[in-house]
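cron nightly-structures :: item 1 of 1
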Amino acid sequence: MKFLTMDIGTSGYLDPLDPFARTVVEINAAIPNADIERAVALELEAGMRDEDREKIERLRKLYENGDAKAASEIGDIYGGNQEEAVKWYRKAAEGGDARGEGGLGIAYLEGAPKNYEEAFKWLRKAASQGDRSAQYKLAESYLMGKGLTQSYSNAYFWASICAVDGDWGCRNLLTKAARNLESTEMSRVQSEASQWSKHFRKPTSQ
């Protein structure tokens, strides 16, 4: 990470009302205090919209007060920067937040470099807490054979669970998986999905 540093004493006039200039000052102040993590975050925030920076600050305070969901939302904002997004999703996931677990799993599944073992570990944890995005990704991955052995039965299982509330994406996966299964196999999987749903949380909207 290359920090956005500036020697204000020798570089001439620096407009104190310029948000970017203020961020440079904050970054330079953070580095001598060995607060490298904060300096990195400030640099990443330098190119953000004011409302996003303000939202991150508000969410950061909530997280510091024990709100794991706030870390998930920060991860969403940093979605274009995998390293930073993963850091915040992990904080949320370790706090037991399903959205954070799902976000972490998706980041490992679709980011670079990919880590399928970590991806499916976190996706399954999130799916068991009712995270629809995680359930969708599991169904899609089994359908396509992405990162694990292709299984239309498993794809149908997870699509059945996340399609409970009529989600279009999940229903589409359900239809695709069904085309590759015999009616007896579909009945068996539907029964398993029904039993599973009785012991785990129902899908929640994202």
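cron nightly-structures :: done
The chain has eleven helices and no strands.
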